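dude i think i finally got it to work??
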Amino acid sequence: MLFLLVSIYIFFTITIGIFAARKVKTSNDFAVAGRSLSLPVVIATVFATWFGAEAIFGVSSTFIDEGLTGVVADPFGASLCLVIAGVIFSKYLYKFNFSTLSTFYRKRYNRSIEVIITLIIILSYLGWVAAQITAIGLVLKVITNGLIGESLGMILGTIAVLSYTTLGGMVSVAIIDLVQMIVIIIGLIITVYFVVELSGGIIPVINLASMNGKLNFFPNGNIWLWLSFVGSLITMMLGSITQQDVYQRITSARTQKIALWGSLIGALLYFCFAFLPMFIAYSATIINPEFSANIDAHGSEIILPLFIMQYTPIFAQVIFFGAVISAIMSTSAATLLAPSVMFTENILSEYLPGLTDKKKLLIMRQSLIVFAIAVLIYAFNSELTIFGMVESAYKVTLVGAFTPLIFGIFWKKANDYGALLAIILGVFSWLSLELLFGDHFIVPPQLIGFAFSVFGMLVGSLVFKQDLSKKLIIHT
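look at this
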């Protein structure tokens, strides 16, 4: 019964997306919804940027294991990212009407920088989208009592998302995000109601979490723990600013003012509602201590869905898993769309002279399917947790793409040499440490990479002079 009802909801969602796809006439419609989105839709689509698998399963399981200190990246860093990105994109880049963020790198620096950073950003999406696909497989396995395995569930979920995203692009994504945000909010509130009834109230759960040290936000320890804490924070807060899906959702707004307020309100909503899965999951360990005892055997990510299946009525299960599917599908759609648009717009277009808009739209759709297959392959072979996949996705963009973006906007002396050196030093230093030491190096490798990236930008721009008269210089 549960699987049937959830399947009906998925079918309903797909139908809405396909219906909305009728509005897609050009590649601009596909990429940024023709810049036509109203404030409620922008709020919904910004909210849905982060409210995916990691917010429901990844963050909640990490909170059970590590407390608030462990979730500094998300929701704290993620929410701050949306605020910072909203201000930067709406104030400085919205007026240029770029379909992709990578276009800025070409206008501000050169074609080579554009291609390199586009490839960096596309690569980062493998882990991000794989986390969503993995969660779809987990959900379908749980609600079918294992009848559908995780691998098959991942394939079916990917097909469902592709069905409307391939046709409607950002138009379908935005409309569905509005519907799904409503379902997510209602679903989580209803689930919390049942959890409060079972756990004896909100205050006892919070008090117990506090007694167990789960509400300690700042690390208690030496400088190395603090560096790890800061590294996690800025990885999500700064590294994800350069993501195409964040840029798309903000700049798809009808006006600059809507872009700003949509991102700010969406960030606030996300920050508030991201704590509900944490509360539900931690309550589950109180209601049934065996969940905590079996974490090592089954992984903490399975606690939340198992609790819902065992302790709530069918009505609450449908609402909860409907909200989960909504969150995952909305995030999956946008994060599959973003790299396919970038690949077409910023890499292929240059090598296909005379490319018509109709042909470009077709290539975007084909690229989306190819990328989805690549994500499935990565997800099948990854040993990372859902939260780990998401966090690792932004390390490469932090060390390779963030510095050229920020310096390109706010420092008039930033030039091609500085951008190239920032990318080379940032990526090489980070990757070397990751390969040699992994997470066991005394300083987070992405912090080292970020520092080298800034150093490279300063040295390259100051030592190697360049005529910037024909470059895009943003007057801040």
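The mean pLDDT is 84.
im so relieved honestly
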